[in-house]
Amino acid sequence: EPEVTQTPSHQVTQMGQEVILRCVPISNHLYFYWYRQILGQKVEFLVSFYNNEISEKSEIFDDQFSVERPDGSNFTLKIRSTKLEDSAMYFCASSPDSIGELFFGEGSRLTVL
Amino acid sequence: EDKVVQSPLSLVVHEGDTVTLNCSYEVTNFRSLLWYKQEKKAPTFLFMLTSSGIEKKSGRLSSILDKKELSSILNITATQTGDSAIYLCAVGGGTSYGKLTFGQGTILTVHP
């Protein structure tokens, strides 16, 4: 069964460092998303991406965040200068269309020290 | 601001019991309500309910959407230990497709 894959599964970084989280969405999907879940809290929407551009972003998704689809398969989330409060599980999701269900990856746990 | 509230926050039952999980929502321009099961990491999709599909069933799981009451229930009959997980309700609305607002989840624990 096709699945969304994410790397790394866990990354530990120092505050102020840049991190890149990578995702390979399901191959025929057109809509891509990043969500995050801080430990013990709700899953929160960060950004949606379609047709090589951001279609919507949340208040959390400020200038330190960026997304990119550098080639036909990868979808990346870059955090430029990490802060302690960026520690969370980051989920990538994809969807075949604009109204269908989202399929989530296993997540990348980011720990900022 | 869109809002999704789930209840109860946690539930402990024994195998064979039937459980009902609740989800209520306030969203602008409702599009869909989704149920996910989260065991260790990734939320896995269970059901999507929309105005054109307000009742879904798969095996021992079923879900109903009440658009009048702005709520949904997820029923699990004859529970098994493998049903132990966090059940997440998420609602799609507003102007952006795919932007889901999640509830805080219901932690279900099924004892043998």
Task: Give a description of the structure.
The complex is a heterodimer of chains A (113) and B (112). Chain A is mostly beta strands and 113 residues long. Chain A contains no helices and eleven strands. Chain A is globular and about 35 Å long. Chain B contains no helices and eleven strands. Helix content of chain B is 0%, strand content 58%. In chain B, strands 2, 4, 5, 9, 10 and 11 form a six-stranded mixed beta sheet that branches. Chain B has a five-stranded antiparallel beta sheet with strand order 1-3-8-7-6, with no helix packed on it. Chain B is mostly beta strands and 112 residues long. Chain B starts with a strand and ends with a strand. The interface between A and B is medium-sized, with 27 and 25 residues.
Quick summary of this structure?
The complex is a heterodimer of chains A (113) and B (112). Chain A is 0% helix and 50% strand.
Key terms:
heterodimer; A: 113 residues; mainly beta; seven-stranded mixed β-sheet; four-stranded antiparallel β-sheet; 11 strands; B: 112 residues; six-stranded mixed β-sheet; five-stranded antiparallel β-sheet; globular
Elements of chain B, N to C (H/E): EEEEEEEEEEE
Question: Biggest interface between protein chains, with counts per chain?
Answer: A-B, 27 and 25 residues
Average residue pLDDT of chain B: 92
The number of E-state strands of chain A comes to 11
| Overall outline of chain A | globular
- Structural class label of chain A: mainly beta
Question: Taking Cα atoms only, what radius of gyration of chain A do you get, to the nearest Å?
Answer: 13 Å
Topology:
The complex is a heterodimer of chains A (113) and B (112).
Chain A: E1 5-7, E2 10-13, E3 19-24, E4 31-37, E5 43-50, E6 53-57, E7 65-68, E8 75-79, E9 88-95, E10 103-104, E11 108-112
Parallel strand pairs in A: 2-11
Antiparallel strand pairs in A: 1-3, 3-8, 4-5, 4-9, 5-6, 7-8, 9-10, 9-11
Chain B: E1 3-7, E2 10-14, E3 19-26, E4 32-38, E5 43-49, E6 55-58, E7 61-66, E8 71-76, E9 85-92, E10 100-102, E11 106-111
